[in-house]
Amino acid sequence: MSEPSTTIFDEILAGDIPCHRVYEDDHVLAFLDINPLSPGHLLVIPKEAKAHLHQLSDESAAAVGRALPRLCRAVMQVSGSSAYNVLQNNGASAHQAVFHVHFHIIPKLEDGRGLGIHWPAAALESPEEMVEGLRSALERDPS
Ligand code: AMP
Prior knowledge:
This protein is of the alpha+beta class. It has 3 helices and 5 strands, in the order H-E-E-E-H-E-E-H.
């Protein structure tokens, strides 16, 4: 994947362009999505400049993970909906447009506003082989 090394979210973090800031701590910033799928659609980003989730340090990942449930609760309160999606895209073909890790929190409203999902599920021919491949990948990449 070849992506720009600085993104619009780096400019937001640097204070060079404005955002509607909702939450900030040492490692995390949350702000309103400029083009929301539903009112309350939030973006939660690590301050660490990494394009993809698999590149994130444990420290940043933990900080984002710690902030997410509280931010989800705030989104639920303002949207009045207990249904929401948390979406995190990696790679242009997976719908990533901004190459700085970000989590969307998207309220799903009764009128249908929110994330629409296409879910073309299909059974695996050999789940055992898949599990074996994944387990050996994890063994080669200890935490
Ligand atoms: P993704 O497709 O997961 O990369 O989503 C990128 C998101 O960033 C989109 O939902 C955009 O609306 C949002 N976005 C892009 N620029 C800005 C900005 N300046 N402020 C807030 N959100 C933005």
